[in-house]
Amino acid sequence: MSDLAAYLAAVVLVALAAWAIAIERPGARHPIRWAGLAFVLCEGCSMALLAPGTVALSDTGADGLSVIALGDTVRTAALSFLMLLACLVNPRPARRRSPAVQAVLAVWLQVAMVLLFIAARPTLQTDGTLTAGPAGRWPLAVRVALFAAYAIWSLIELFVAVLPQARLAATGPLRWGGRLVLAAVCVGVVWTLWSYDDIVHVLRYGSVDGSEDTVSNALGAVCATLVATGSLIGKWSVTFQAAARWLRLCRCYLVMGPLWSALRTAMPQIAFPEGGRPLLAGWPAGIEFALYRRVIEIHDGRLVLRAYHHPEVASWLEQAGPSEVDTPRGVVSRRADAKTIPADADADAALVEAATIAAALENMRRGRRFTATATAEATSRKASTVSVDVIPTDLDAEVQWLSRVAWAFRRSPMIPVLLERLRAEEG
């Protein structure tokens, strides 16, 4: 169980570092990101090296002491990168926390750890226990205490540096990511404090576990999970938002299809030449290109149809009274056989626009034009039914607006009724 926790945590951390390196743009320089990646990679490698299963390879002829020394060196380097990360994240680090000072301290710490290990002259027992040589208890105990103290210091500095970032993050996912990193720091503190009993054990019995025990590996696995989740939550949020936007644009593209097809069939001249970016290329850029081209063609068709607008469409819809209309989400429908629910301005305005386009297409097929005065009056009357709040102010709002119009153009039962009245009026 201890080996499983250690190796799983190592795989999670190394995979996180490999994924972050893979998506890094060539030539980009992000010291904070690279310091974090170095810490994650070193910590993952040290957990794999100090796992009981790895240390047990000494039974097969491997040098167990070298494996333990290498694991401790890599783990100490991970702490140095953690301290460097705290210095870089903190916008105004104190002089004692400057990156240059910490780099020098990291070198001296590595030298001290190696010298203390040599001075302790330990031997590795068959059960994985590291036993100090003659007069080696104090050097080994000082080595354990020095590492634990440096780990606690690094974690406290990182907590102090990340805490304001977690509070002031611009978006919810970034705030949650910072909180998870802070939780990982707290677990790391508990993980480090768990090793303080090793100091007493070394001084009393002259021995210490050469590998991490079950509790330490379990805490390491929890810490690795929190670090990975906190690091990825912001990226996952961006990915989910891009996926949600792509699905929304695809839905608008399909909803606008019937209206766009009707206008292109009646007026082939509004169609742009085929080609350009494929629909699924550069997700979501491909669907945006196709959708915005569809918006432009619909607007061109609406401009051509201005001479065929019937001046009485809006008044006919008012006279028709409430009716059940299928509308997309966010638009309130009205029922004639139940208590009337006031429709919102979007639904009314979209229905008027859809009915105007349908009547204009019918007039175009029959060759019926209207005078400029009648068309202007119809346009003014239609504009008076549209609230200022539903007038599109940007391209995305225009897409949503035309989607409502297209939905009403295809699904509203008022459109066939209006066209029948139009044909009856002509007859």
TrEMBL record:
Q: Where are the transmembrane segments?
A: 6-23, 35-55, 67-88, 100-120, 140-164, 176-194, 214-234
Q: Does the keyword Oxidoreductase apply?
A: no
Instruction: List keywords of the entry alphabetically.
Output: Membrane, Transmembrane, Transmembrane helix
One family name in Pfam for this protein: DUF6545
**What superkingdom does the record give?**
Bacteria
Q: Which residues form the DUF6545 domain?
A: 245-410
Q: InterPro entries, alphabetically?
A: DUF6545, MAB_1171c-like
Return the protein name: DUF6545 domain-containing protein
Q: What is the species listed in this Swiss-Prot or TrEMBL entry?
A: Catenulispora acidiphila (strain DSM 44928 / JCM 14897 / NBRC 102108 / NRRL B-24433 / ID139908)
Q: What is the lineage of its organism?
A: Bacteria, Bacillati, Actinomycetota, Actinomycetes, Catenulisporales
